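Known limitations

Files may contain more than one protein. Parsers should not assume a single record per file. Below, a two-record file is shown to illustrate correct handling: read the sequence, read the token line, then continue until end of file.
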Amino acid sequence: MKTSLLVIGGGAAGLMAAGSAANEGAETLVLERSERPARKLMITGKGRCNVTNNCPSLQELISNVPRNGRFLYGAFSRFMPADVMDFFESRGVELKTERGNRVFPVSDNAADIVDALAGYAKSRARFINGRAVKLLVENEKIAGVETENGEKIFADKVIIATGGLSYPGTGSTGDGYELARQAGHRITPLKPSLVPLEIHEGFCSELMGLSLRNTAIKVIDTDTNKTVYTDFGEMLFTHFGVSGPMILSASAHMRDMKSGKYKIYIDLKPALTEEQLDARILRDFSENTNKNYINSLNSLLPKKLVPVIVKLSGINLSTKVNQITKEQRKKLVQVLKGMCITVTDFRPVAEAIITSGGVDISQINPKTMESKLVKGLYFAGEVIDADAYTGGFNLQIAFSTGRLAGLSAAEEIINERSYDYEQ
């Protein structure tokens, strides 16, 4: 089999690359392991698909990519969030912007995004099922790939857009890293990012299923005693620790993970100062003056959280409210404003939204996404060592790098075709 351009991977980056290249006139073939493309897109944003982030400037976009954001300057410049929004809206997908500039389809259905993107690529490129296991390289130039069933697909250009290691059930099993290694590329250490956290304190499992909203967190690096992240929003207690939007974002700021290095302080009442919270507690106590302490906090906290807070405050649960001292009340306020949990580890990379690490960016041309080692080989999406915070930024990376890789490969194909014709 022979084609001008082979795109390995039918996810967000691969589909954008294939459609962009084919739209320029390049004969394009997509090799995808799954029968249905873009399976990971179907589960992003809890099935709603946070398709991009409607941030107003290139600088703000780059600032939300803590891992090699400057490398993406060229890709972002040519395909900004506004361009992504125009792309989908021009294909009949109505979009809306929510808190934090997160962009979703009005339907809240990820299938609308998948259908538009897959339709764009399928109307222009051919698709086949299969798994690439070996790159064919001749004289430091790409020649194609060999599939796991031994078939060879010859191609003038190849784009690797296979994703990372997260959510392997969707087809992201790290194939691209091995293919890149075959071409001589370095792979930086792979680890989870935007991932739930395992916590030392056993009370997390007691609180399993409890979701806290309008809560604030502060993450402290105990090695340096510095605050590495703060946020306000939603989090969730699980059997292993904590998850939810704030926690996933916080995980992206945790480097060189080791047990006990990071502590998270949860402010359960961020809208109140310590003085205001103390006044609120006094008011509640005055209305429950003859009750036991354990029964006095139900209007202040979720029922499931009360026994945990009582225990952390150090006040005997059967103490009468009118016997609680000012010092004991002060300790309660401190617990409510800074409930401390200790991070022991990330959850496995298979549970992460994004894989941090990947093909070393120093070996990729940022203006084209082409390999600096093998001519005609390109990279796009999560396989590259660049990852961002939650909020639509990682899909923006996929779309921008996919489009740049596709357009760059198509331009080379067309230029070479013109040169051959002239000869």
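...continuing to the second record:
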Amino acid sequence: MASLASPSRRKQQPPALSRSALKARNALVLEHLPLADAIASATARRLFPLVEREDLIQVAREALVRSAPRCRAGEPAGPYLRRCITGALQHHLRDRVRLVRISRREHEKGSCPLGHISLDATADGEPCMLDQLAAPEAEPAISEAMHGLALEQLVEQLPAAQATALRLTVLEGLSLRQAATQLEISCMSVQRAQKKAIAALRQQLAGGG
């Protein structure tokens, strides 16, 4: 019987592992299985009763199996696998989980007003919500300083990543997505850098150094 998978889907399948690579992967999976279960269980406890522990454990274990072959020889596998598992759980929560509990009756109607839509999702040719999300505005005192004579003196004292994020989002008025695309990093990284820069500027303006 012919496979129903589309050609594009078949191309996404990872290459088959050699026997030695498969053995190494299985060893890593067995070694770090308690880590995956612990991360999933901690997430389930934090979000109880909105998520099922068994579902998160399945997501965490799948992420562990997928990520284990990408571990670099000679480097500790634990930190890398922890990041991969945590990222997979975050994506699952973002895309698959309703963080507002809706009654079964409303679900069965199929007209739930609180349906979850990913910020990256597009509909009817409209730009996604993330593209329309403007960067957070700086405080008035900081904005004035940024556009005043003390601009370079303040910004030059910041780490490069923070200074760049601040210039793009405050001076040039780019959105988080636009700044992230230009810097080739995630939107959250831009936002974190901007927040750190604003906190440092606030301290400087207050005379704290």
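Parsers that stop after the first record will miss the second one. For reference, the second record is described as follows. The chain has ten helices and no strands.
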